[in-house]
Amino acid sequence: MIISEKAEALKLKLVEDEFQSHYDQRVLYWLFGLIFLSNVFINVDHGSLPGCSNNIKDDLGIGNLEFGTLGSIVYGGLTLGSAVATWVYRFDHWVKPTLVLTLAMNCLTLWVFTLTNSFYFDAFLRFLLGFFQVFAVIYQPVWADTFAKEGKKSTWLTILILASPVGVVFGFSITAVMVRYETWRWSFFIQ
């Protein structure tokens, strides 16, 4: 290793030690767990929707094409939300208010989705769900990269990436059981 590489490694170590000294590791682990669970629950509806497809189609009186629209339009919201989030997250002072607002709006949108029987309004709500979900999804890896220790960053990022399919599988599984006893709407209430 040449001297400049050693100096750079030492500088990175000193910066990380100084940064980490300002944060209680237990609080960071607790926050990471909360972020992981939020990522799991953000993705529950992506499994719930196919888990109750027949029930939704019967309830709303729609066919396969319309149901496919409900399942896919969320990605339009994710795409638009990604562009907006990229712009919003350039301003540090907007991060927390944006996360709080978009998570609250995500919950409200899900709740309204369970109350309506209009396909067009439900499609609009699914678009909004994608839009609001993406703000948290984009910020989570940034948070992990910022607050994880250098040797733990890849582990934390891997766990966060795992949360998405865990949420989908959880949503599908719980919905498959739930629709036998309750309306399909309950799986979205759980989210």
TrEMBL record:
Q: Name one GO cellular component term.
A: membrane
How does the entry describe its membrane topology? Multi-pass membrane protein
> Protein name, please?
Major facilitator superfamily (MFS) profile domain-containing protein
Query: SUPFAM superfamilies given for it?
Result: MFS general substrate transporter
* Pfam name, any one: MFS_1
Superkingdom, natural source: Eukaryota
**TM segments?**
27-44, 65-88, 94-116, 123-144, 156-179
GO MF annotation, one? transmembrane transporter activity
Q: Where is this protein localized, as stated in its record?
A: Membrane
Q: Where is the Major facilitator superfamily (MFS) profile domain?
A: 31-191
- Keywords on record: Membrane, Transmembrane, Transmembrane helix
